[in-house]
Predict the structure.
Amino acid sequence: MSGSAHKANFVQPKEFKFSKENLKKIDEIVAKYPKGRQQSAVMPLLDLAQRQNDNWIPEAAMEEIARILDMPRIKVFEVATFYTMYNLEPRGKHHLQFCTTTPCWLRGSSEVVGACEKHLGIKLGETTPDGMFTMTDVECLGACVNAPVLQRNGDEFYEDLNTENIVEILDNLKAGKMPEHGSQTGRIHAMGEAGPTTLLDMAKKNNITAGGDAPKDGGKDGGKAKSKGKKK
Ligand code: FES
């Protein structure tokens, strides 16, 4: 990952405590590992801390994790600083991670990033003044077949992006609505953009076309692709 969040002045909280709910989850996570191997839970605990603390992990949280897992602080810091999925400084409410690796780039990620920058008035690596959005670029998100791709807060994938649908996504997020994730052009799963190219009989029987018609039984996504039908 080459982008990093805008380095505005921010204060490291002196203390961090997990919520009651997360402490329960921690017990469950740690119980999955053999006795004496509780340090293996460091990654899920870092993830819990990040989710509890508005998308970033303060140093106090890493210290708390070291205490809970009875491991040296430096080992927690080593893990947290190695993986780009952990944010060690504040991020916006919506952390938008744009894949800019070759397949996404060939399919227009630069234009999509440009449209987002223009719409939000920030550059990659920056956060909007209202704290709503942070834009960063990342390496392959593993969804190249539906490039270009954007990941929000490490959870939802928005695929088949273009300069128009990215603006729709941003406007929805701004309005407090959660846009439907997955293909934004109505493509079913990773089907070829021009429609099915294999198992044609089955595709015909199930009314699967390039236009986003879903299988009669709803398919694996429960027919969500059908409801979009935004083939462009
Ligand atoms: S190159 Fe973008 S998801 Fe793989």
Summary: Residues 1-6, 213-232 have pLDDT under 50 and may be disordered. Residues 99, 101, 103-104, 140-144, 147, 149 surround FE2/S2 (inorganic) cluster (CB under 6 Å).
